[in-house]
Write a structure and sequence with these properties.
- By secondary structure, this protein is α/β, with parallel strands linked by helices.
- It folds into two domains: 146 residues, Aspartate Aminotransferase, domain 1, CATH 3.90.1150.10; 237 residues, Aspartate Aminotransferase, domain 2 (3-Layer(aba) Sandwich), CATH 3.40.640.
- Helix content is 45%, strand content 14%.
- The chain has 15 helices and twelve strands.
- It has a seven-stranded mixed sheet with strand order 2-8-7-6-5-3-4, with helices on both faces.
- The longest helix is centred in the C-terminal third of the chain and has 24 residues.
- The termini are far apart.
- The model has no long low-confidence stretch (mean pLDDT 95).
- Keywords: Aminotransferase, Pyridoxal phosphate, Transferase.
- Its EC number is 2.6.1.-.
- It is an enzyme of class 2 (transferase).
- GO terms for molecular function: pyridoxal phosphate binding; transaminase activity.
């Protein structure tokens, strides 16, 4: 095992050194050492990839799709992404210049921020939210302007206007809905109201809509439909088709902006892998029923978990989308959410995530992923009930 020479021992990217590794994965790794623990920690669908999608990947391998694809992805897939977005969300993009295939939505977020922002720029990020957004911004020296959306976890025009009044140099807004971690989503009137403020201030909006197919009531409306000239839309197949390991995402937006994102993408990964693109093309072309079936099962799980948590005294609102429950710890229990989740793991072997890891407004909350079977979710409720009994009989 090599030991670095003393002269290099402190060599590092100073900006990156200020950022912790993914706190959610760190907690998940810690919990994995506990025998018999039931984890509701990661946003990892528990479904298998549908067989017809797996067959498409296998066929691509058998057909020797093993060489470099075009940097922006196979044109056939970009055509299918454009067709899917038009069919489902009334969005219009030119596949050749406005659709980019990425290695997951995570790479899409990184390439977008690095392609369009400079050190010292400011970006608004409403919280609680997915921690990666702020981590990427910080790593590249972009200043984050937070908007605490608690207690309803909704970004309103009023909150957005106030942030812009106090930070007039802001260049963009990072928007995620349905939301990780809260499950909050927005109807067309709410989206229109937010879009009006963004348009009035000539802001770029980076809209992460990876959970768009997992909306339970009503239809998802993309902000890109209202503000196509100001929106970079990020999505992928990981959540809708349980394809997290296939690492296939995409970015769409105006060609003048996409050329910079595409350049950064090419420097990062060169291109996405061919067999995975074949699988994504099949999912988009013939997999709408797959996403619908998964969504309906998630809704059943949501309802079971929500009912169980409310009966135990946890304050929770039914998520409008995604597969996360963001709940307030009851006042009669420890309000330090980090201490709380470790105590729960130790005493009743249940792994959940502290709300404070998702930014301001998440303190005193916990997130549970209901990408798990009904049996596991009922067992999670039972273990929380056991924990409350232990804590309230002292």
């Amino acid at each position: 095992m090599p030991k670095v020479i003393e002269a290099l021992a402190t060599m590092k990217n100073d900006q990156l050194a200020t950022i912790l590794p993914s706190p959610i994965r760190e907690i998940d790794a810690n919990f994995s050492t506990i025998p018999g623990i039931l984890k509701l920690t990661l946003g990892e669908p528990d479904f298998a990839v549908p067989d017809h999608i797996k067959s498409a990947a296998k066929k691509a391998i058998d057909d020797d799709d093993s060489h470099y694809a075009p940097a922006w992805g196979h044109l056939s897939l970009r055509n299918e992404i454009a067709a899917y977005l038009k069919r489902r969300f009334q969005l219009s993009y030119q596949p050749e210049t406005e659709v980019l295939v990425t290695v997951g939505a995570s790479e899409a977020i990184y390439a977008t921020m690095h392609g369009l922002f400079n050190p010292g720029d400011q970006i608004i990020i409403p919280t609680p939210t997915f921690p990666m957004y702020e981590a990427i911004a910080q790593a590249m020296g972009v200043e984050v302007v937070g908007i605490n959306t608690a207690p309803d976890f909704i970004l309103t025009p009023e909150k957005l206007k106030y942030a812009l009044q106090t930070h007039p140099k802001v260049k963009g807004v990072m928007f995620n809905y349905p939301s990780n971690p809260t499950g909050v989503t927005y109807d067309s009137q709410q989206i229109q109201a937010i879009a009006t403020v963004i348009a009035e201030n000539d802001l770029l909006v980076i809209s992460d809509e990876i959970y768009a197919e997992l909306v339970y009531e009503g239809e998802h409306q993309s902000i890109a439909e209202i503000l196509p000239q100001q929106t970079i839309l990020i999505s992928g197949l990981s959540k809708s088709h349980a394809m997290t390991g296939y690492r296939l995402g995409y970015v769409t937006g105006p060609a003048a902006l996409m050329k910079h994102i595409g350049k950064m993408h090419q420097f990062l990964v060169t291109t996405a892998p061919g067999p995975m693109m074949a699988a994504a093309e099949e999912a988009l072309k013939h997999g709408q029923d797959d996403a619908t079936k998964m969504r309906d099962i998630y809704q059943q799980r949501r309802d079971l978990l929500l009912s169980g948590l409310q009966q135990l005294g946890f304050e929770a609102v039914a998520p409008g989308g995604a597969f996360y429950m963001f709940v307030k710890i009851p006042d009669f229990l420890n309000q330090d959410d980090v201490a709380f989740i470790y105590d729960v793991a130790e005493k009743v072997k249940l792994g959940i995530v502290p709300g404070s890891m998702f930014g301001a407004g998440g303190e005193g909350y916990v997130r549970l992923s209901y990408a798990a079977s009904l049996e596991d979710l009922q067992e999670a409720v039972n273990r929380l009930s056991q924990y409350i009994a232990l804590e309230t009989t002292h």
